[in-house]
Amino acid sequence: MFQVPEETAIRPAMAIEAMHAYSLVHDDLPCMDDDDFRRGQPTVHKKWDEATAVLAGDALQALAFELALHPYGKFGEEKSTVGSDTQRAHFAFMLAMSAGNGGMVKGQALDIAAENAKEPLSLDDILDLQAHKTGKLIELPCLVGPYFTNIPDLADHHSTERMGLYGHKIGLAFQIADDILDVEGDAATVGKAVGKDAGAGKATFVSHLGLDGAKRRAQELVTEAIECLSIYGDEAETLREAARFVISRQS
């Protein structure tokens, strides 16, 4: 859609996925969400041990920045194909901001603090928490296209704003869908324990909006996300399908 060559896009994509994988490994730890299964498979600390899970997550985070800053799209190349030095450095900065204290880690800290709070989180509190914990790392890949494109008309702030808003909305819809699956899903299909939020008395989108209200809000967000893509025509169809999948998934 933004006509970014594969050799330019591959390492930023791998960097984001490495950061995402690290977050899941650490999120499953007993000191965090304490999950034994992820997509139907034993989590890293259950299959091996906690020390291995911590180190695996650390290694994946380091790998993310190695990939973000690497100048070659393919191994063995001698000519830079992944943007300029400035572009790669700024992308690494964006990755750090999305994953660190201004993004995912902040959201996780808010989530942990909420478990011991005297009062359940308000809906606004949940929106803030999830915008950081889930949203920031979903927004980032949506910005890579306009950031690395060489086509001026596609690199302007309007494209960046539209794609960032698209990512924000599907990130929020994704979390609402997660809350719905925690109520309606079964562990075998979802691939992890369900009913944990209600069992812990945790405030969620479902507890605030009701099950039907949460489903309506998720659908509204997907519709709004798709509207952000209107100027891109048929080239954005894959992103439209991705937005619809966010709330139709069963795991």
Automatic annotation (TrEMBL):
Pathway: Isoprenoid biosynthesis; geranylgeranyl diphosphate biosynthesis; geranylgeranyl diphosphate from farnesyl diphosphate and isopentenyl diphosphate: step 1/1
Cofactor: Mg(2+)
InterPro entries: Isoprenoid_synthase_dom_sf (IPR008949), Polyprenyl_synt (IPR000092), Polyprenyl_synt_CS (IPR033749)
Record keyword Transferase present: yes
GO terms for biological process, alphabetical: carotenoid biosynthetic process; chlorophyll biosynthetic process; photosynthesis
Keyword terms, alphabetized: Carotenoid biosynthesis, Chlorophyll biosynthesis, Isoprene biosynthesis, Magnesium, Metal-binding, Photosynthesis, Transferase
Gene Ontology molecular functions: geranylgeranyl diphosphate synthase activity; metal ion binding
One Pfam family, short name: polyprenyl_synt
EC numbers for this chain: 2.5.1.29
Catalytic reaction(s) noted: isopentenyl diphosphate + (2E,6E)-farnesyl diphosphate = (2E,6E,10E)-geranylgeranyl diphosphate + diphosphate
Function, as annotated: Catalyzes the condensation of farnesyl diphosphate (FPP) and isopentenyl diphosphate (IPP) to yield geranylgeranyl diphosphate (GGPP) needed for biosynthesis of carotenoids and diterpenes.
Family of the protein in this entry: Belongs to the FPP/GGPP synthase family.
Name of this protein: Geranylgeranyl diphosphate synthase
